Amino acid sequence: MLLFNVTVIIEENSAADFLAWMKQSHIPQLMDTDCFVSHRFLQIKDSPNEGLSYCVQFIAENEASHQRFLDLHEQAFIAEMYNRYPKKLVTFSTLMEFVG
């Protein structure tokens, strides 16, 4: 099992719209790709960055599922986020493997 973590830092004045969009549209569309089996959406409380920080953690059953997401969907989802919130957010992702 792999955990694909997407961290987003967004300007405070866009945060309410961002949260609604993530919950109602973006995350459901990501889950509809069938690349992930579950997700969690969290706010980072001790971020040293300006703005508000969130992370979405997606669980992939294996590397093939994660790679399918990267190959078929990742660029479109990133573009959608930056097009919706131009110059209002930054995002980065990390991939982690469960070891225990």
Could you say what the CATH architecture is?
2-Layer Sandwich
CATH class: Alpha Beta
Question: Secondary-structure element sequence?
Answer: EHEEHHE
Beta-strand proportion: 25-35%
* Low-confidence residue ranges: none
Number of domains: 1
Major beta sheet summary: 4 strands, antiparallel
Name a few traits of the molecule.
globular, four-stranded antiparallel beta sheet, 4 strands, 100 residues, Alpha-Beta Plaits
Describe what you observe in this structure.
This protein has helices at 15-31, 63-72, 74-84; strands at 2-10, 38-44, 52-60, 89-97. By secondary structure, it is α+β, with helices and mostly antiparallel strands. Strand 2 and strand 3 form a beta hairpin. It starts with a strand and ends with a strand.
